[in-house]
Amino acid sequence: MIRGIVFDMDGLLFDSERLVKRTWNEVGEILGLPGLGEHIRHTLGKNRRGRNEYFIRTFGEDFPFEAFDRENKRIFAGIMEQEGMPVKPGARELLVYGKEQGYKMGIATSSSRNYAVEHLKGTGLYEYFDGGVFGDMVTRGKPDPEIYLAACESLGLEPGVCMALEDSPAGIRSASSAGMVPVMVPDLVEPTEEIRELAYAVCDSLAEVEGLLELL
Question: Given 10, 15, 136, 144, which residue is catalytic?
């Protein structure tokens, strides 16, 4: 019986990964790295450390991290000021349903605490969560199970009674290794056969998750 739901954030609750891709493409033009945004699919679910390790493997030790971070923050902040953070279809409705049904709900995001809390509060979603773990609170990022194990602990629940909602393959691997019930709602990357085998279900949108919960 499912008693808790743990949500990823970027690409699941927020349609933010497309914004990051757009931002990285703009940064790439400034840094002389055209098409940089296409690399986001290789960093989905990873924390800052994992992202930086990917950049080093792909572009070398001399990747301009200082300039990247500066321009990335500037451009992303401009988009947020003009457009705001888009909430994914079905996200708010699922959180309302979860609260009404008495599920404990938590966050397990690779994003930093400050970034996550700012946008969760800004969109009015923060109040639905009973606990959470952020990327700067763990040593090992997804696909390691550390973040999901910690998120379940923050809810006071065993992993086996918690559903994990994820959009990335790394997140599904993480939740599966933690012993949870992983459900994928794909965003930028479709699941491979390996990921489909690890996932309890693959949904087209968050609107389908309520039906799954009623079966478990």
Answer: 10
- Angle at 174 (CA atoms; ends 172, 179), nearest 5 degrees: 95
Handedness of CA 200, 202, 205, 208 (dihedral sign): negative
Q: Return the number of other C-beta atoms located less than 10 Å from residue 29's C-beta.
A: 14
Helix axes 48-59, 65-83, angle to 10 degrees: 120
pLDDT tens per residue across all 216 residues of the chain = 999 999 999 999 999 989 999 999 999 999 999 999 999 999 988 888 889 999 999 999 999 999 999 999 999 999 999 999 999 999 999 999 999 999 999 999 999 999 999 999 999 999 999 999 999 999 998 999 999 999 999 999 999 999 999 999 999 999 999 999 999 999 999 999 999 999 999 999 999 999 999 998
Residue 23, Cβ density class (10 Å: 0-12 exposed, 13-18 middle, ≥19 buried): buried
Give 192's strand partners: none
Cis preceding linkage at 143, omega within 30? yes
Q: Is there a catalytic annotation at residue 136?
A: no
Catalytic one of 8, 69, 167, 187: 8
DSSP assigned state of 10: B
**SS3 label, residue 178:** coil
**CA–CA separation, 81 vs 150, rounded Å?**
33
